[in-house]
């Protein structure tokens, strides 16, 4: 017989309440006492509410980074001493257990199910899912690419819906950068250089590169602070540089540096197009609010210089699983940008960058306005694809990354067929639903589509 183990006093209280509730129901049935029936119903509702509250508190506490705080407090100890008392976990807290397992299996080309939700427990607030059709639609091969470039662009680029980016999120070694570029070359996608820039390892990997530059980068300027035209023109004309992404300020001190004025930004955009021979040029925004996105699009229309793409990156957080309010702001910025671009009739594409692992993540971002996605490469490398974990493996990190990208793209095609989508642009936020509480489920269209009276949503927490 299985031995029952009582893990806490709260568990004993819930068991006692359950037994009391059963006793009330049995007594009410025998004596036909309607008052006892009402008491049993009230007690059941109260028990369900308390169980939900204590369950969420327990799982939130379980995911809290106590180990990292303890390590920060004893920072003065040498590393060889701290390792004896505090074991370093194999992976960070960027991903849940389900996400780590999915990443590992797809990187080895093992069979996985098609992900139709955000991998949270079904009854937890924050759980999301997409509505699928009962019948399986066979729509034939789907081209999951998007052409980046407006009428002012002479060399449009066909960008895959899933690429590698955000190299600054986490520590990415030079060997990992080379593996990412190799994977991009093998599976026909792009890799964003990030603040690391065009390193030799990235160039040798052979992948298509999105050159990420900063407006205030002194390495691109002359001693008199003017732009080094010769250097910029030489690098921008390289055949492996397919797109150029301009960051207005450093991500490490966002909001502390002086932001250039609109005239200077759009002048540089025009010059970069000229120096690169007409390649796509866009702007990178880190966790912007809706007002900043709207101001950028209005300024672009007034200046007559149209960006080929706008890259919106999800905010960095010390622990992604504990800071889901940043994700809400990320979604709002995407939805606002797409709505305004459509209202102005602009063909500027939107690129979303963040921790993007599943086909559900891709379709949800496309429904909210994104045309393509860049998955955080640092997170991929730190959660099961790090070279140190592949010393005895026959599969190289580059091949494992390429396997993950190909398998996720194929799963995206299958999920699109389940939803009846022929193109990524057909993804509709009204088909995606989020559980706000135990008794309320609303669509993403209802959450983000109410202009002027946005619905307040409690910050979410990923729960294993």
From TrEMBL:
<protein>
    <recommendedName>
        <fullName>FMN-binding glutamate synthase family protein</fullName>
    </recommendedName>
</protein>
<feature type="transmembrane region" description="Helical">
    <location>
        <begin position="9"/>
        <end position="28"/>
    </location>
</feature>
<keyword id="KW-1133">Transmembrane helix</keyword>
<dbReference type="InterPro" id="IPR013785">
    <property type="entry name" value="Aldolase_TIM"/>
</dbReference>
<keyword id="KW-0812">Transmembrane</keyword>
<keyword id="KW-0472">Membrane</keyword>
